[in-house]
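[Protein data]
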Amino acid sequence: MSVDGGGGGTRGAEPDAVARAALKAVEIEGGPRFRLWATCPGGLEREVAGELAALGWTPLQPSVREDVPRGRTDGLWWERGSVYGEADLAAVYRTLWGGRTIHRITALQHVGIADSLDEVEAAVRSADFSWLPDAPFAIRAARIGDHSFRSPDLGRVAGAAVIDEHRAATGRRLPVDLDDPEVEIRVELTGTRLRVGTELVTGSVHRRDYYPFRHMAALKPSVAAALLRLGAWKARESLLDPMCGGGTILVEAALALQGRPVRTGGTQRLERLGFHDPALARRVRDALTAPTTGRDTSTTLLGLERFGTHVGGARRNIRAAGVEEMVEVREGDATRPDGVQRVDCVVVNPPYGLRAGSPAILDELYQESLRALRGKLGPEGRIVFLSPAVRRVRRAAERAGLAVNLTRGVSLGRLDAVAFVLVPS
């Protein structure tokens, strides 16, 4: 099976635990509607689109044929690292506070094709920026691919176009502040595909404030949540991370199971843009923070970790997130998971062998851990295994009696890995 092969990870009609958490407050509607662009971990767009659909995003119809992105999940179009849709302000609040798999939320002004700076300028001028407040702004420009110009050129041309069009519409010149702007406009050109939009939140919402211990190879929480969706982990199923490091996967699982928001602030950008509705925000926040009823408290969330320092760090993170009653971390070995009973879902981010260790040691770790975990799986059990060592994982899985159900090629910053969903063969 090729990388990015296969469909979604959902098994059966019951929603996975991450999507289930998103359903809180979904009945609340109100406020202006936006054409939206969410950035996310590259390669996990299907999982992100499913969560955003649960949060209330609806399909965004491409305006011209060239606008059609690569794929579609739950009605939402997506391409590498991006998902598109429409939603009202209430759904934007839900996404800001309850979105577990996303990075940025941007109000789209333009999506189309551009092959030169002149075409970029024309596209930016066609967008409506007359509603922008008279506040310091900045262009955040980026490009991927071969072009006859650089990213600073892209930013310069786009910035001049925004200033000119806003002045023509309002008679006022927008001030520029590249260091601490109140308004940020994103202009991204990937090949010939151009996207222009205004940021609705400050910074990346994947950042959480409940991880005091930083493991040297920690996953982004957004990646961890998306891997849980990929594995279709459900609320009544046991979960094991046998190489849990700082506990990110387990913490994100516990918070999703509780239906708790991953953040409660971050509305400053909406306030500056004039979109913030305090009463509506309060209704959404109250619904998201209300206790979840009917939760199965018998669900087992268990982590194993070889190194005592990391065990202590994971427990610190678990306490900081307030989920110590739901998650247990033990000192243990993934190749000999003694004391672990039958498990429904395993999600693991193992060592990649990039910092130290010989290939033979990594081969042994993968083969022995997968063989041991195969013996712990329940009837519908599956393992989500993330690693850049594709051949080693395939070889280890085959020797352990596991088949590759589907894969996702995942971008981890400067490193590309593959998430395998493995099931008994």
About this structure: The first strand starts at residue 33 and ends at 39. The longest helix spans residues 151-170.
